[in-house]
Amino acid sequence: MNKKFVVNIGRQLGSGGKEIGEKLAARLGIDFYDKELITLASKESGLCREFFEKADERASQGIIGGLFGMRFPFVGDGALPTQNCLSNDALFKVQSDVIRQLADEKSCLFVGRCADYILRDYPNCVNIFISASHSARVTRLCAALSISEEEAENMMNKEDKKRSEYYNYYSYKTWGAAATYHLCIDSSVLGIEKTIDFIEEFVKLKIK
Predict the structure, then answer these.
(1) Is 39 helix (H, G, I), strand (E, B) or coil?
(2) 3-class DSSP assignment, residue 96
(3) What tens digit of pLDDT does each residue of 113-146 get?
(4) 114 in Cβ contact with 13 (< 8 Å)
(5) Domain assignment of residue 91, given as a range
(6) Are 199 and 128 in contact (CB under 8 A)?
(7) What InterPro entries does its record include (predicted)?
(8) What is the three-state SS of 97-121?
(9) Helix (H) or strand (E) holding 131
């Protein structure tokens, strides 16, 4: 595959989406972006990384709450600005610009952050959603984080709600719905490695 292309992955917490994305990107020989986008957006805008971490995959709530519910300076500015406020929408715009810039430069794989919607006009995109059975997700989180099943379930419910609200708000589509993606796959059916095999073949066929 000599031409530029992008793979966008949406995922349920505990589905192995990040691991699948990392390994798939390595196999395809393209760059992988997940939390790295926060660092890049911070550098691009001159804003502190903490702003983007606070807003990461969260739908707009006006001005960022808590300690962030005020006006902030750009890094290096000597005084607080009097006009512009940092909303989740403003930070989403910065991160969107970074995603578009990366997609213009090279082939890459993005995890989350509405990348499939942001790059909706790009011709060579493959949009994938990775889910897993409830039990598989709980087992994976318990093993990875050394937490109880109850804690894992609470974490799953909270994170799924946050991700769906974020995606639905910015994309006007439905997070996890089959019609939103080119491929939806349950990683607990084939296991992580065979799921990667399946997606890799799908990507190559679609790009061709």
Answers:
(1) helix
(2) helix
(3) 899 999 999 989 999 999 999 999 999 999 999 9
(4) no
(5) 6-207
(6) yes
(7) P-loop_NTPase
(8) HHHHHHHHHCCEEEECCCHHHHCCC
(9) strand 125-131
Query: Residue 10 is inside which H or E element, if any?
Result: strand 6-11
CA distance 38 to 50: 9
Residue 139 lies in a domain: yes
Domain assignment present for 196: yes
Q: What is the pLDDT of residues 151-167, one digit of tens each?
A: 999 999 999 999 999 99
Whether the Cβ atoms of residue 10 and residue 167 lie closer than 8 Å to each other:
yes
Hey, what amino acid is at 153? E
Place of tokens 């519910």: 69
DSSP code of residue 87: B
Q: Cα(115)–Cα(111) distance, rounded to whole angstroms?
A: 8
Specify the number of domains making up the chain: 1
The sign of the dihedral angle between the CA atoms of 180, 184, 188, 193 is negative
In a domain, 1, yes or no: no
**Can you give the pLDDT at residue 208?**
84
Domain CATH code at residue 85: 3.40.50.300
Q: Please check whether residue 64 lies inside any domain of the structure.
A: yes
Q: Where are the alpha helices (DSSP H) in the chain?
A: 17-28, 36-45, 49-55, 88-105, 115-118, 134-145, 149-171, 187-190, 192-207
